[in-house]
Predict the structure.
Amino acid sequence: MMRNSQSTLLRQLRKGGAIDCDGLDKQDMVVATQELGLSLLVADCDRARSRSAVLRAIAKAVDFPEFFGGDMDALYDCLCDTVFDNKSGVVLWLYRLHSGDPALADDATLIDGVCADVVQFASENGRVFSYVIEHAGEHPEAEPGVAAAPYGES
């Protein structure tokens, strides 16, 4: 028997749009996207401290072309292409986007707006686009004498 949270998630995914990650079980997301034939793409934004780093994380998750421009218009174009290239649609999960960082606060809002525009594009083209922005607050302060881990390392 399907849990109520799973059926709610399936309804949200069929509709498209922003999905609140509070209380969202990641395994439920995997199962739901598989059931609906949607591609689940996870962008690890945890170490990203700038717009370009966030866009690189998204580009890596979505496998954007090398000519990706690295601005919001290019993000929209590539997400639309990705949605159109998938039979049913796409779910983009922005994992630990540090939208509380002063350098990323405005960009997080812009990225959310781009994703909302892609939802509309997908709907107009018989596809689904859903997205999760997992806000992570600010990055912790650097410890004196300890070098930050290079971007892209786990």
Q: What stands out?
A: The first strand starts at residue 17 and ends at 18.
